[in-house]
Design brief:
With 213 residues, this protein is of the alpha+beta class. It is built from 4 helices and 5 strands.
Length: 213
């Protein structure tokens, strides 16, 4: 039996404010009089009654009509909960009731569990990376302080620094040691040249004295 326009429009207006809720009007003698799912996210307008749930809808609706009270039905699944409610219309003798159905996604769903597991793993990786970075920075800081202490000794020559085991810092240490070695060698050559000049000047002075005497 085709849905009557008044029933269909009434059901549509009643369900429009509720996302994910479908429903309609049912009569015991004829079955579904109207079905509406205004928040349906698929293409086009959904007008066909859910075939898989139709037997359950019929059972819940007829129970509500016979008992003349609101009836609720729930089915728990791994990924969602299916809720069906039916309420007889004011004129119970007409054998009609309004019904609604909605699905509630639960945290036990596989996609949710996969997403949660992925986020937990990502959090562990981030925490591990942060801890590793903190350790590297701490070791770098400690070894840098060692280099600073060695350079702050106040000695005339640059001290020979020990390698720290940190590759980037050891490059700086090697450069400082190399510069210190060159500076030391240059200073020794200068001292040797100054000593030779002094000896030469002393020899000339002695020669002049002998010559004058």
């Amino acid at each position: 039996m085709a849905a009557q326009p008044d029933y269909l429009s009434s059901a549509t207006r009643a369900l429009e404010p509720f996302a994910g809720v479908e429903g309609g009007i049912w009569k015991v003698s004829t079955g579904s009089l109207a079905y509406a799912f205004p928040s349906y996210e698929g293409s086009g307008q959904k007008t066909d009654l859910p075939q898989a749930e139709e037997p359950t809808i019929r059972q819940v609706v007829e129970t509500a009509i016979i008992s003349r009270r609101q009836v609720e039905w729930k089915r728990d699944a791994r990924s969602q909960i299916l809720l069906i409610q039916a309420c007889p219309l004011a004129d119970g003798d007409a054998g009609m009731a309004a019904w609604t159905m909605t699905r509630v996604v639960t945290v036990a769903g596989r996609p949710f569990l996969l997403a949660t597991t992925g986020l937990a793993f990502l959090l562990i990786v981030l925490l591990g990376s942060a801890a590793l970075l903190a350790r590297v920075l701490w070791r770098w800081s400690q070894r840098l302080r060692t280099v600073e202490s060695a350079l702050a000794t106040g000695a005339e020559d640059l001290p020979v620094l020990q390698l720290t085991g940190q590759r980037d810092l050891d490059r700086i240490v090697k450069a400082i040691n190399g510069a210190g070695s060159k500076a030391l060698e240059s200073r020794r050559r200068t001292e040797s040249l100054q000593q030779r000049i002094a000896e030469s000047e002393l020899g000339e002075e002695l020669f002049d004295r002998v010559k004058v005497g």
